[in-house]
Design a protein that fits this description.
The structure holds two protein chains of two kinds. Chain A contains four helices and four strands. By secondary structure, chain A is an alpha+beta fold. In chain A, helix 1 links the parallel strand 1 and strand 2. The chains are: A alpha+beta, B alpha/beta.
Chain lengths: 131, 426
């Protein structure tokens, strides 16, 4: 299946950059969600859950999403948004906004933990997508 | 399947020359246990300590909590496929050390570990303030990767619990409880007028550091299946995850699942407890569809009248929970879902990341975002390095007077989604 990875996690780009279509977002977790929401509104379909990891938004700075480029039936018009993807990404953005702001993570070791966990959960999704 | 659980009440744990259980007291020589931990070269040191209810002790960062058990009759051994061979467990006789637990601690991933306070406000929230805790703080080999460390600590905890469980062999239990489920036909014949009820148990399976194992198999890779609820009592399901402390299901809770206990209490009286259905919580959306389809189909094929569904975690699992609920209800089977809430510090936000009108019977374990102040305690087992970093804490958590301002999220078992917690509206 053809899909791409939308991520702000440097480890994800490092691991999958050569084998997969990785599109990096230079920004925070919310920027990845918003970029995904924009792409979903133009027909992209979400393949993994945007709130994976049971890590609350505002706690981890990283997010990696799998998206499939949507096509319209005729192939020449923009695709219609996928309702399930719209719902999930909308809920994820709301969940992000609901949690009170925390200071940005500065601790290098902690950032490394967040990157590693994000990568391991991305691997879990890629494994399912590639089988 | 019929399982007898012989309960041996442990009233104290003491360090001693000889490891043994005598008159309800567990005597432990840490030197007997050290080699059990250090047989894995990924761990270079371990420190054992004891925390008792009421003591001014804080255990952190907590990874897993395990109840020592030993199988004395019937097939297999405790933790099949993990410690014991993969024989099917859940029948015969098992002895359990009640009133105590093995608690594994150590830094694995900085942000997803828990706190157990043995006294004060925190103790009112964690069920593990009521147990005598034999704590083991494991030190990893240098440069060990997080997931290797998680596995090493997970396995060391099971080995130690098994070794301690063995001390119970030959001891007369203080109390014996019998749990029995019947075959499908037998059950219908014996209880023709009782509603057929199942338990759908959703296991955390999002990926490395977020996994649960069934007979040693990573549950991420299973298709939903049925097991006898007594199998879980023999350790067929073990925790291998580092999710938020308040709503993760440590191995202890799988062994002592309150939904299973309560369904057995009503079995043959108000309902016929048919089986446990285990399913997963993968991150990939197509996996969620497949697993929830299968779960709903199993409920229908078993002709269940109702099920209780429990989840583990927040966000991603909420979608599985709602998918399961919706699809099972669509099969004509009534559902009650058990969850907790992330409703914001003021409790006014939407509690779950997903919802559906079919989810009209919900039991909550409480609001994980609720803020509490934990007192400064005299002793720490583990380390305080991460209290500002774990989920539910912040840079401002550790206050000048040594108290901690945290959300309930940080407290192990505080809002448990199997209903094992202490919170109640009553």
């Amino acid at each position: 299946m053809k899909y791409y990875i939308l991520t702000n996690n440097p480890l994800a780009a490092e691991e999958f950059g050569k084998t997969h279509d990785v599109r990096t977002v230079d920004g925070k977790l919310i920027d990845v969600l918003i970029a995904a929401r924009d792409q979903i509104s133009r027909g992209a379909v979400l393949l993994n859950h945007p709130l994976y990891g049971s890590v609350k938004p505002n706690e981890t700075p990283f997010r990696s999403l799998l998206l499939q480029q949507g096509k319209s039936a005729s192939g020449d018009a923009p695709a219609m948004p996928d309702p399930e993807s719209v719902r999930l990404i909308g809920n994820a953005v709301s969940a992000f906004e609901k949690f009170t702001g925390k200071k940005e993570v500065a601790d290098r070791r902690l950032l490394d933990d967040f990157m590693v966990v994000d990568l391991s959960l991305l691997r879990s999704a890629v494994e399912s997508a590639d089988r | 399947m019929r399982l007898e659980i012989g309960k041996i009440n442990i009233t104290d744990i003491r360090f001693a020359e000889e490891s043994k259980i005598e008159k309800g007291i567990l005597y432990v020589n840490p030197e007997d246990l050290k080699p059990v931990v250090l047989e894995d070269e990924k761990l270079v040191d371990v420190v054992f300590d004891i925390a008792k209810p009421g003591e001014s002790v804080r255990i952190t960062p907590v990874k897993d909590v395990i109840e020592p058990r030993v199988k004395v009759e019937g097939k297999g051994g405790i933790f099949p496929g993990v410690i014991a061979k993969v024989d099917t467990v859940g029948s015969g006789k098992t002895l359990a050390l009640k009133g105590m637990a093995v608690v594994t601690a150590g830094r694995i991933v900085g942000f997803q570990e828990g706190i157990i306070d043995m006294t004060g406000v925190g103790a009112q929230y964690t069920p593990f303030s009521k147990t005598l805790n034999l704590c083991m703080v494991c030190e990893p080999a240098p440069d060990l990767k997080q997931h290797d460390y998680e596995k090493a600590v997970r396995m060391a905890g099971f080995r130690v619990a098994t070794k301690i469980g063995e001390l119970a062999r030959g001891i007369e239990p203080d109390e014996t409880c019998v749990y029995e489920t019947l075959g499908i036909k037998e059950g219908i014949e014996k209880y023709p007028d009782l509603p057929r009820v199942g338990y759908v148990s959703m296991l955390q399976t999002q990926g490395l550091l977020h996994d649960t194992y069934v007979y040693g198999v990573d549950a991420k890779k299973i298709i939903p299946t049925i097991i006898s609820p007594t199998e879980a009592m023999d350790g067929a399901i073990v925790s291998g995850n580092c999710v938020s402390a308040c709503d993760k299901n440590p191995t202890y809770i799988h062994q002592n699942n309150p939904v299973i206990e309560d369904l057995f209490a009503q079995h043959g009286k108000t309902l016929n407890f048919v089986c446990q259905i285990i399913t997963n919580e993968n991150v990939y959306l197509a996996d969620k569809e497949r697993s929830s389809n299968m779960t709903a189909k199993l409920c229908r094929m078993l002709d269940l009248d109702g099920v209780i569904v429990t989840q583990e975690g927040f966000g991603n699992p909420d979608t599985d929970l709602i998918m399961n609920c919706k699809k099972i209800e669509a099969e004509g089977v009534k559902t009650v879902i058990v969850t907790d809430e992330y409703a914001g510090r003021d409790g006014k936000s939407q509690s779950l990341a997903d919802a559906d009108a079919a989810a009209d019977a919900v039991v909550t374990g409480g609001n994980a975002n609720e803020v509490v102040i934990l007192p400064k305690l005299d002793k720490v087992i583990g380390m305080m390095d991460y209290v500002n970093k774990i989920a539910g804490a912040s840079e401002d958590t550790l206050r000048e007077d040594g108290t901690l301002e945290v959300e309930l999220q940080v407290i192990t078992g505080a809002t448990n989604e199997m209903g094992f917690g202490l919170l109640s509206a009553r």
